[in-house]
Amino acid sequence: MQMLALTEGAFLKHLEMALLTTSGTKDFRILANKQLSGYLIALWIAENQSAKDLLNRCLPRALLDYLDSKDPPPSIPDEKDLLTVRNNLEMAENCEKDKPFAQIQDQLKSVQITLEARLDTLLQHWNLEQKLTFLQNHRVREEQQKATQRPVVLRKRRRQVKATANWKSFCYYFAQNHSRADLIWNEKTRDEFRQAIANEMRLLQHELEFVQSETEIAWNHSEFLINYNSLSDEVRIGEYYLRFLLSEENNVETATPIHRPQEFFNNIYHRFLLAQRNEMRCICLRAMAIVYERHCISIGPFSDTYYIVHMLAKCINLAERDHLIYLISKLALDKQNVRDLIAADSLPLLIDIAVLAHLHTNRAKLHAQTNVIEAPKGTIDSEESAPKEWYYNDKQGQRNGPYSFRKIKQLFCDGTLFEKSEIWAEGLDKWCYLSSVAQFRWTICCNQHSLIGQTSSIKSDENEKSKDIDLLPVALYNPTDLCSLILDTLIQMCSFFPSRDETGAIIRPLPKVKKILSEPVLLYQLVQLLLTYDPAIVQRIGTLVHLIMEDNNALSRLYLSGIFFFILMYNGSNILPIAHFLKYAHLKQAFRSTLSASELASRSVLCPMLPEANIFYLEQYGAEKYAEVFLGESQNPECIWNSDMRKHMINKIALHVADFSNRLSSNVKALYRYCPIPPIEYDQLKEELFCHFYYLRHLIDEKRFPLWPIREPVEFLRSCLSAWQNEITRKPTKMSNEQACERLGLDIKDKSSWSDPVAVRRAYFKLAQKYHPDKNPDGREQFEQINYAYEFLTSTLARASLSQEPDINRIIVIIKAQSITYKRNLKVLSPYKYAGYTQLIKTIDLESADDALFSNQKGGESGQLLISAVELCYWTLKSSPLNAEQLRRDGGLEALYKTFCRCVPMITSSCNDNSMAVKVCLHVCNCFGAAANFEACREKIAEMKALFKGICQLLKFEHLTRLSCAAADCVCSLSVCTLLQTQMFQAGIIWQLMPHLFRFDWTLDEGGVAHSEKTNQQSTLNRLARSCCEALACLAGYRPNTPDNDGVQNSLRAMLTPYICRQMQLASCSLAVNLNQSDEEKEEQEELQKEEIKKSKNNSVIENGKIVLNNGKQNTCQPNSVDDDACLADDISVTKPPIQYRNDFVLKLLNSNTFDPYLIWDNSTRAELLDFVELHRNSNDNLVRQFFVF
């Protein structure tokens, strides 16, 4: 049937019926015939290659692909399925549904057979078979049926063909319009299809009329072919239309799939080689690039890469040049093609075209401050102001020049110069023909060729022609986009050849592509593309140079190209690739700054341009974090940077390279000659002092930055000590103004010569070329002196340091920074001995002995210096016992004692907590308290008789709560020695401590109202009362590691009663005590307290009314003593006492009325005691009347 359908022409007729019958008709007969014809066609093409070949000659392949589609077509509401097709599966399912009735029939039949068998047995037994004739007739009929049955003969079944084509989907898309790279189908093509089938059927019918009826006729289907004349103008290669292929987006999901891509790519290349017109060649080149980009793995290496590069070198058409470069960019996706590109010497050719981006003047500018130093209006385009770079030889062989780029173009337009004229400029290694220089070849020469190649005459005057010459010819890409494309190609080429292998080993020899790009001429030209300031170019240059310079021996000399100047001049925000490059390269340059004190900053090539803190931030936090800071506004201890500082830096660098950057608009191959930039000074940093990661003025500002972490505190402390030493012993610079001028050959008497940066730079260039180590190996020492003289004369900071004295404010900042470092890192610094006691003690001695210490004129700076020095002394003592011993050896205790004696008399009732004398005495008390933990220091303290009088004097100023607390805490610390206890007792310390106990308000804590010492004065008085109570307990020997003092104990028993003294030495976990308890309950509570003390973690027991520790270790912490500075700094971890004493309970007893067998205490006893204390407090007799009786 399949063959008959072809030979008799039925296939053609049914094809017309199935595809060309309109679906809009309502005649069901026609619609049924249409569906039947489609079903027949689907059957006839199933497993029939002849029929499939016929369809391939009639219809596009992309349209026939819908026959193999598995997706159902979109539903058409007006079209219904009018064919009834036998469905064996459905019939089998229906039969399965009737299965229960069949089972019943089988059961009935089985019962019938059983009954007949039994009946037959019964009849034989009674001999009734002959009598029942109906049974006999039944047997006769069964025998006749068996005789008439024919044997079963197996025969070969006829092969049944199934229709697998998705004819419905094919018909649906046949009726739609398509405009794709592989299919153009519309009303015109459908009409041509209809006419071709109608003509073929008419011709076949006409032939049948002339043939006799007995003769069999077969349709010549093998030669039937349909040509679509409406598509004759389309450029088609293989099965694809290039017009649509080039217009598609490069998206894998939406792009047209390409079958047999290698064959298709070769076909396009063959058409390109045969094409004569430039338009066709460009189309083929672009199509090759698109196909290769999508299927580079399937296509593999391209064997004619060398010839593509050769075509680019000989090309004179802009559009063809751009398409060749576009193809090369896609060929670079294959590693073997990259090797061929390198072997074909394509890198210099590509870079020559890339640098033409300097001539692009119509690029978009960023919304930021321009990098260009603006010239007066009207002078930019003038011939006089244009850089003159070019020379040429005329017909007589005489050299002429220099001329600007604009002037050379004008000479070419006037006919003075020709394509074969020899020209030269810096950057060219020899005299070259004008047409061989890329800058002229792609601006005026190619335009000349395009004018010659035009078929129509151009009627224009000389002015119009000159105007056309001035403009760049129109091409596929503008110079900036073309440069970006080339840079992407170079990046792709470098990425195939990494600098390290999988194990991290450095690859040597250096990959060839990186070796070629590392050559100074090519590398400098790439680097100078940064001066285009185009975001796309700058970002790609940063990435490319980073790839080239990884593990490259030429990295150390990269700074000579000026790349660090050009990078920092960029004012865009896409600086992440730049930041990665700076992080990698800034410390690896053969560069050394002679003006930076920091080792890290002096090794960084960024030192003259960026603040030292920025360099540390880049090195510490990496490129990503640094990019955030560089683009934003930052003012913290680690970095001070803002947009104004960035603009200032850009202006300074732009001024430094202005002489060169202007030349690139005239000669794109000009090479930069390196000249060191004078250190850039920022007004925002004039008062700042930077030391090892931190600006010290911000670091010591604990209001703004209270918890700023200090990394590497040991190294930071060393840096602070070094900065302190440098500030005290400020040394003159290595070179004076006279020596620097003499070194550079400038006249010191003529100030205008050595104060003008341009004149200094000119003198430096002259000598640097003479003594540069590359040209003069013996001139390295002279070259270093020249560099230092140049930096010295161009840096105002270096010249200003000649006559400066030590700055007291800077010293104060350094000392405060050290104090904060110790305060926040006590445990980290505890193993280290402080190395700055010599300077510290000398500072304390000098300041305390100054006659003008308390004068209004000098009290600001000197007072702050003394306060900071004494505070630092305290924190060093608190950090490590090594420091206490070192301080004693260096005479630090004596210096503190003298300072204390100098300041105590200056404290009066009119002073406040911010007074200089108050702060000094507070820190001195803390120092002696910390030093008292060491026996050798206690021996020294015992010799300072006036110290105890001074402490007593400080306790009189109850309005100076912080100072009084510090004095009370100092008493606690000094009470570890019997001798010191006795001396304080004899000085009358009890008379000064006792009154503060009765200013305690126990209702403040038990009232449930939140309070703090900053906002509540009673809270500070309560704190002072607790400190004084603890001081009395330590003085009497009621605390561990404090010896018993009978004199103090007897005095306290006499004045405070034995019961209260016993409560002072007890410990309890609960501070709240119910005063209304019975006597038995109080006794039980005391017993429980004693048991708790025995089970404490320090294994302490009560002996002779005193708590003694059994672990054999000293307990240096003072219970219930709160350090003043520890309260102010929340980040200091204060060690809690292992035992909590009942100071609050004692204070509550003293300030309450109690009547029980243990204690009788009321207002009269308190008044009597206070009168007695006040009497001795104001008298010269400091001895305690031990037999005081209420």
From TrEMBL:
Residues 1071-1099 form a coiled coil. Keywords: Coiled coil. It holds the Pfam family RME-8_N. Residues 739-806 form the J domain. SUPFAM superfamilies: ARM repeat, Chaperone J-domain, GYF domain. One of its GO terms (cellular component) is endosome membrane. The keyword Amino-acid biosynthesis does not apply. InterPro entries: ARM-like, ARM-type_fold, DnaJ_domain, GRV2/DNAJC13, GRV2/DNAJC13_N, GYF-like_dom_sf, GYF_2, J_dom_sf. One of its GO terms (biological process) is receptor-mediated endocytosis. CDD domains: DnaJ. PANTHER family: DNAJ HOMOLOG SUBFAMILY C MEMBER 13. This is J domain-containing protein. It comes from Meloidogyne enterolobii (Root-knot nematode worm). The lineage of its organism: Eukaryota, Metazoa, Ecdysozoa, Nematoda, Chromadorea.
